[in-house]
Amino acid sequence: MKGTVALVMLIGWAVFWVGWLLAATQVKRGQTRWPGYAGVRLLLALVIIVSLRGARHSVTAATLTGPAPKAIGLTLWAVGLALAVWARVYIGRNWGTPMSHKEDPELVTSGPYRFVRHPIYSGIILAMLGTAVALTLYWLVAAVVLGAYFIYSAKAEERYMTEIFPEAYPAYKRKSKMLIPFVF
Prior knowledge:
Blueprint: H1 2-25, H2 37-57, H3 67-91, H4 119-134, H5 139-164, H6 168-175
């Protein structure tokens, strides 16, 4: 079962990231992209490589056994990717940074954005945690590093959003948490 779960997750991650990169190419030409955009891809690739390398050497020592962790992990992974995709589709043309280069930017606070301010990041982190539970706990390294990077990126994005929406964004921040509903 572990091999099947790993294959499903590997294919799912590949489809997710290829789709993500294709969506990124749809951003209008001439629009400045967020300076950390290339860094996210590089960081993710490095974290995955390191995680897989470590997992290859000692998978059994850091693996939760039995069907329950596989089912729970696969569920967390699927919910996380679904949340990230839903948030990306929901935000539509407002996706991408900096927002200041978009025509008529809109502050989206409904849909998945009513629960947290950065549901795309939340979804990816949840999917990484699900991967760790289902496959090997070494994926926690990827989730922690990516989570730290997403917090850094979210704070930078929020500075932009506050400049663009000086009244609405601070009000939105008071109503919703950054990444985890009701917590953080």
